Write the structure tokens for this entry.
Amino acid sequence: MVLNEVEANPVKKNRKHTFNWDKVMPYLSIAPFYLLFLVFGLFPLVFSAYLALGKWDGIGAIQYTGLTNFSRLLQDQDFWLSIKNTLIIWSVGTFPMLFAALILAFLLNLQFIKHREFLKSVLFLPNITSVVAITILFGLIFSNMDGLANGLLQMVGLPKINWLTSPQWVRVVIASVNIWQYLGYNMIIYLTGIARIPKDYYEAAAVDGASQHQVFWHITIPQLKPIILFTIIMSTIGGLQVFSEAQVLVPSGATAQGGAMTIVYYLYKTAFTNHQFGYGSAIAWGLVALIVLCSVINWLITNSRIKGVN
């Protein structure tokens, strides 16, 4: 009697009922990331979009109000003042910091510079330091009464400055915290990009008698175009979300007129102090729109200027 295929091959019969872990394990390995993303990423995003269309104090039921929160947002003077504060802090703290980081990266890449690793570690150290600790330090330095900054001004015969209560100066202090913290981080990124530029370009420039200034503008910057765009966009995203610095420097008394009320700080006070979570969600989506707009504008301007350098 002729046996069928399964009976003739018992090994194949056993394989038919064996669970294939090799195919399942890759999905189980990446499952925690997607679960965390769903819980802490996608769900808050969708829920905030839904919450922005309603009114909720965090306890009762959500009352649907349509686009009322967004129409209120367009007429909210405090919101527009917080945008003004944030944009000033971002512009003062971002562009000088990125340019200084680029210059430092270019200088550290020069052959005659010694102790590069030590210098890179020292410059990168503020980035791994707590932003709250850095802000407290800057608060002591720029104290209105007996801070180090006012002490130096008095030494040269200049009057004291109310750093933390003057609208224009408190923005400078907050921007200085960002410069101090992210200068080394962006320098490392630029230095990594410069190290990948073919040395033939620099050797050819040296043979042609190009100065370091010409090498920087006509070789280094064009070759770093993708990295420069990346740092500008990432600095824009981070710079427009300034919160801890403003909260620590100017605690509960901050106002939009005072210069320390950034968009995220205004969002925090609206949602978690005034318990207006629906309107707070609308502010958050207004911040998203502002970040996208500024990122696109920065990309267009930077892209055109780098092409001009070429």
